[in-house]
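Protein of interest.
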Amino acid sequence: MNLDLWTKAPAAFGVIALVIAAAFYFRIAALPEGNDDMKRIAGYIREGSMAFLSREYKVLAVYSVVVFAAMAATPSLGVIAGAWFLTGAFLSLLAGFIGMKAATLANVRTANAASDNSKGSAKANALLTALDGGAVMGLCVAGLSLMGLVGVYALYAGTEQLGTMLHAFAVGASSIALFARIGGGIYTKAADVGADIAGKVVENIPEDDPRNPGVIADNVGDNVGDVAGMGADIYESLVAAIVATMAIGLTTKEETLAHLLTGPVNGADGKVISAKVLAVALPLILSGIGLAVSIGGIFMARALKNSAPAAVLRSAMVAPPVLVVAITWFILPQFGVQQGVTTALAGGAIGGAIIGLLTEYYTGHYGPVKSVAEAAKTGAGTNVIQGMAVGMQSVFVCLLLIAGVAMLANFAMGDLGMYGIGIAAVGMLSGTAIVMTVDAYGPVSDNAGGIAEMAGLDPAVREITDELDAVGNTTAAIGKGFAIGSATLTVVALFSAFSLEVNHARVLAGLKEMELAIDRPEILIGLLIGAVLPFIVAAATMTAVGKAAGAIVMEIKRQFDTIPGLREGKAEPQPKAIVDIATAAALSQMILPGVVAVLGPVLIGYVLGPAALAGALAGALAVGASLSLFMANAGGAWDNAKKFIEKGGVPGHPKKSETHKAAVIGDTVGDPFKDTSGPGVAILIKVMSVVSLLIAPIIALKG
């Protein structure tokens, strides 16, 4: 068994993923864009998206340089660790840039494919175009993350520096993800809410009406929030899960890790491979298998393009986890690894798929959403109350499932229970490429529908794009549930890695191990501090969306009042002004959450010590996981309750009725819940944990 070859395989799969992504990108670019109106509208969306990304990346470049300087000046970290921090950050930004370029090329071409029956089924070709647009993002996220981690492992395997370099890489990935997700989330929801209120409520015009100057900004937001932002989020989750599991392997005693093996394992050179070496390499190997299976899943989905879009995408998300488990069951004996690892991996992989299905139940057109729609009959207040109740119910079920996955992994691995939970997190993220593909498909199809509406294409075209968009809404909700569920499991593993790292440093210094007894004052103080941090981030992001949306409403009203002929459709709106308002709000308001996530653990650790920081991580995990799930699922329920009414789901209460208007208000509340604050809180707890892991050796001797 050649372990070196197997640990390099994920990087090889990463290269293959990037080659396929490039092929998809150029295939999309070669497709026709449609008529001049479609090209003009798509140009506005592309220009606004790249302008936002350019300005955001300038801010993030300054942040990255400052953190690099701080790390370089810290004796226990140094310039090399700072360089790996920059590498983790750069690869995250690169994946977002390439993915959003592809999405903004695919949107108009999807709309055009839906209008062209000359090459067979318009729906099938539109589905394929949107799917390929999403696949570029999915393949780049998974490919670049694995290539970066294999690079760190290849250079530092067997050295004392491996842990530090892995943690530095993960901090780069995590902090960029926080800024990208929150910045993109503020932008997209400010534009969405502002355009909706100004259009549907103030001017009483349809969604995606070309007269509304906020519509372009809304379509831009789909790309910067749900493509670039979500991509950074999933990229970071995969990196954090792998690094957490590798860190547990690095700091667990060799005699304990021996339980991982069924007997002595010899390498290709005949030498015995230690359990520690295998424990550190295994997460990379399993993730490489997941990427290979996901690539196959993408091509399977493409081959099924003539089937119903919902069936295609659901199959694409459900099949890969099952295949990963089957392949792992066959391969692990070749490494002499006990099959408890397969059980833990299966728990995470299948648990992730179930979380997606649970999210679909609570946010799709099923009982919970129908109850929210029915509640709108008696006004906005009851609609909001019922939506909050549905969100709260979903937290109970989803977190119970995550706890069940953790318990299964712990039981399967015995003395290596926390390592098993890390493997479960890796399993949950093993299908990252296909999950991100399906998730990014959503905004591409949404943009396609907007372009079709604004360009005045035949209603039959809009029927196709609406069907694709409806599926995209479902997959987006599944993606958010998957992201939050995997974040929760990952943070459990990171918490264990932090504790092990601290104790490893304390033992080397001749000190007793840190005690995490719940009755210690510093633990309780840390718990309380950690519990309030998710609320700070949620409040800051909600406030930012509300203020920016208000400014956008006023600007749209100004344009309708001052541009002659705009209401009559005889003049062009000025979408650039709306884009500028949303961009400025996003870039200024994403700073506070970033400071809380990065500096919070540092201050708590240096001032109160590692035990208090452990308490803060536990408090942030418990509250943050619950709050993020509640906000994401409540927001999804409000959104789809409105759409359920629009489709005639509540007899006697059609679109533009008082019931519908009440549901629109609920959706307005839910927009920042599901796309800004909920995902932002989920990333917060990951960033706090990764930063804590990096500084663990530095603060370990305090207290």
